[in-house]
Every structure is written in C-alpha cells, then in structure tokens.
Input
Amino acid sequence: MPVEKLSFSTVVGAVLTKDALCEYRTRYAAGALIMFSLTALSSVSMAIAGASLPPELAAALLWVVLFFCAMAGLARVFVQEQEAGTLLGLRLYAPGQAVFFGKLLFNFTLLAGLTCLVVPLFAIFLAVEIGPWLPFAAVLAFGCAGIATVSTLTAAMVMYAQGKHAIFTVLTFPVLLPQLLCVINATAKLLSGGLPEWNEFVFMAGYDAAVVAAGVLLFDYLWQD
Output
C-alpha cells in the first residue's frame, strides 16, 4: 500500500500544532516570558516613581524587555525535543525546512502574544502615550519577526551545547543588533509623536527577509549535523 506523502504546509502545521500542544500542557516558555516581563516592568515603574521617561529611553526599555523575554523562553524550541527524545523522530518524518518554519511560526506566535500583553502594561506602568497604532504595530511585527527568526536558528545551533541558555543569548544578540537599533529608533519616533521614515520600514522588512533566507539556506546543515 503506497504511503501518502504529506504536503509541506501540512508538515509545517503539524510541527506548529505539536509545539503549541506541548506548551499548553507545560506552560514553561509562556510562564517564563510573562513572569520576566511583569517583573521587569513593575520594577522599572517603582524605580522611576511616576517620572516621565524620554521617548528614546522608553523605546529602548520596551525592546530590552521583549528581547530578554525572548531569550528566557524561545531557546526551548529545540531543547524540549532533545530532552523528550523526539529529535530522531522529527528528522525521520519531517523535512528540515518544514521543521524550521514550524518552529519559527511557533516562536513568532509566542512572542507576538507576549507583545500584546507587554505593550499595554508598558503604557500603563510607565505612563507612556503611544503614537499612531498602525505604524507602531508594523514596527512591533517587524521586530518580533526578526527576534523569532534569529532565535530559531541559534536555538538549533546550541541545543547540544553546555550552558546553552547563556550561549543562546551571546549568539543571538550580535546578529539581532542592527534590527534592534532600527526598531528602537522607529519606536522612539512614534512615542514622541512622529513617524518613522520609509527607509526604516524597508530596512526592517529587508532584515527579516534576509534572516529567513539565511535560515532556509542553513537550517538543513544545522538540522542534520
């Protein structure tokens, strides 16, 4: 009896669904991300005691919180496969590219959900007035997409390493630095009542496209080795 070959999108959806169900059962990554963000925002809010922050500092603080939240939770996207002993099964039954996009979509969904929680709390705790919402949402989407993509690649690199969480952050930050600087600058303009320039949106979109293309080219080597 011939074996039916699953489509690429079906395999991507299966990987995404499996990770979502595992996270729903354990709530490890979501719990770590939420607790870190709440602790960071409440600590800063109490430290400044109601004082207003300059837009540049507020924008940097927002993205620092999102970045380190990602570092606290997104590394487990492959670590949990190693701990559960399911890496071999994934290698046998799922193409590397499908695993990459499934893990990437899971990381992006998790980070986007966290962002929807953090941004309102950020505005309330720090008394920040956010500018036009549509450009602000676009900046958040570009920034989260970059963080999720680079995190997925570096998580695959460090899944067998000792001290993987520290190495994960060290590897991820330099690669993400250009995107972080751009989204911080764009966010600062929005918080001050202005709008980012078009070339900033082009850079953010181009960076995300470049890191996704790099993932497509490199992930098979990381996955099989």
User: Anything to note?
Assistant: The longest helix spans residues 96-125. The mean pLDDT is 83. The chain has nine helices and no strands.
